[in-house]
Design brief:
By secondary structure, the chain is an all-alpha fold. It has a single domain, classed as Growth Hormone, Chain: A (Up-down Bundle). Helix content is 80%, strand content 0%. It has 22 helices and no strands. Helix 4 packs antiparallel against helix 5, helix 8 packs antiparallel against helix 16 and helix 15 runs antiparallel to helix 20. The two termini are 27 Å apart. The relative contact order is 0.15.
Length: 465
């Protein structure tokens, strides 16, 4: 019998590979979200539309990329459990980056009319399908490469890309948004999209050296003939449902990065570069706070950290939106930092390990992908679009959008309360914890059946003789 040689765990390399990839994902998210609030509504829709309507339509194209992500999770999640976490990470890397670059090449409404938004939506659909597999595979890769007592910390580097991708976007966008209007609308807006090519190259150079984690290779060696998606929905649908509701808290981040920018600049005519500077400063501070929160995740627990961050980010969104209506930059910066840098960093640091550890290793990418992508899709669609609609045609109402944020908080918080604290278990113990007797029987049957088939086939020539 051939012994399977397992690779060594490389937590640092896996964490960096996950970080750089999700930096690209959030760079795409932030660059498109910021553009949709400031520029794309002008370039890709009829200039005869009211400002509020054009911004709403632009944010709908943003939401389309999230609406298709559940479909992508049905494809890429099982691929991650069948063919490898690294395989999906490389596939999504080029898919996301290529689509971002292509958006920068699109002709505008003035050039081709209504075909412009159609092409924009088509690319966003493809991009959304690719996005659905990026984080789940990267989180699983980093989690399974980490030592048992540092899984929360190592996995938190995946969502550190949220802050670094946002920061990278704003560092690019602040000087571009300050360009003369004619240059900005003619060619300047394309530069942030083209810049994604550099991020793709950097991510590829790092990811190509990362090996599959030992847990995945060991699971592959058993050759259990199971269908990940079918197995997931049969035995772990409760965990998927729990993650869907927990993931709704991401809607507050989308509101912070997209809706609030349009709310401040289009609704209250605040200075665009300064408004963008608010989220820039918040992202810089989050870069420092997220790893610290990730360290605490292993000390005080995934569930405790996630709940604390969820409650905080929901409540502080209310004074943040109110502060924008006052035009007081001190208040805007203060509440923006508290909301995003502090509380959302707690959410970002805890959810990767909190969600991923709700599933056994054989189904981890599938379960994480399906649960998060449905939840992110709902919040990505509802968050900016509903908040914009409730703000009114003049984008001046703040109480309706505040209620949206509080609603996300309630759904996510109540769902998190039903979860177990998994930080004290090893990965092998988690497999035992999450597998019922019925599931163990099904896996055993799927593992034994191919061996019997092989034995019977090998015996046939002897029988003929």
């Amino acid at each position: 019998m051939t012994q399977t040689i397992l690779p060594k765990k490389t937590p640092a390399r896996a964490a960096i590979a996950a970080w750089i990839g999700t930096t690209l994902e959030y760079y795409d998210f932030a660059v498109y979200g910021t553009s949709s609030a400031l520029i794309l509504n002008v370039l890709f829709f009829s200039p005869q539309l009211p400002t509020g309507i054009s911004v709403l339509l632009s944010l709908i194209t943003f939401a389309v990329g999230y609406a298709v992500r559940p479909l992508g999770s049905l494809i890429l999640g099982p691929m991650g459990d069948r063919y490898g976490r690294k395989f999906v990470m490389m596939l999504t890397l080029f898919g996301i980056g290529g689509c971002t670059f292509l958006i920068g090449c699109l002709p505008t409404y003035a050039q081709i009319g209504s075909l412009a938004p159609i092409l924009l939506v088509a690319i966003r659909v493809i991009q959304g399908l690719c996005l659905s597999g990026e984080q789940p595979s990267a989180i699983t890769m980093s989690l399974e490469h980490a030592s048992d007592h540092r899984r929360g910390f190592i996995a938190s580097f995946t969502t550190l890309g949220s802050a670094s991708g946002t920061l990278l976007t704003l560092l690019v966008f602040i000087p571009i948004s300050a360009m003369p209007s004619a240059q900005l609308l003619s060619w300047g807006w394309r530069l942030p999209f083209w810049f994604s090519a550099l991020v793709v190259v950097a991510a590829y150079l790092i990811r190509r050296h990362v090996q599959e984690p030992p847990e995945f290779i060991q699971a592959q060696a058993t050759k259990a003939n199971i269908t990940p998606l079918k197995h997931l929905l049969r035995f772990h649908w409760r965990a998927v449902l729990r993650i869907i509701f927990c993931a709704l808290i991401a809607g507050t981040s989308y509101m912070m990065q997209t809706f609030s920018v349009a709310f401040g600049t289009a609704g209250y005519k605040l200075d665009k570069p300064t408004m963008l500077l608010t989220t820039t400063v918040s992202a810089v501070i989050a870069l420092a706070i997220t790893p610290l929160a990730g360290f605490l995740v292993d000390k005080i627990g995934r569930k405790t950290m996630f709940l604390s961050g969820t409650i905080g980010v929901g409540i502080t969104m209310v004074p943040y939106l109110w502060s924008i209506t006052t035009g007081n930059w001190t208040l805007i910066f203060l509440f923006g930092i508290i909301n995003y840098s502090f509380f959302y960093s707690m959410v970002n640091a805890s959810w990767p390990s909190f969600f991923a550890e709700m599933f056994p290793g054989r189904l981890r990418v599938s379960g994480l992908a399906l649960g998060t992508q449905i939840g992110f899709a709902i919040s990505g669609v509802i968050g900016p679009v509903l908040a914009t609609a409730l703000a009114g045609a003049d984008l001046k109402g703040w109480t309706g959008p505040s209620m949206v944020a509080l609603g996300f908080m309630l759904f996510a918080g109540i769902s998190a309360l039903t979860a177990k604290e998994t930080g004290k278990y090893t990965l092998k113990e988690l497999d035992e914890l999450h597998q019922s007797k019925q599931e163990k029987t099904a896996v055993a049957a799927a593992t034994v059946a191919p061996a019997r088939a092989t034995h019977d086939l090998s015996a046939e020539p002897a029988a003929e003789k």
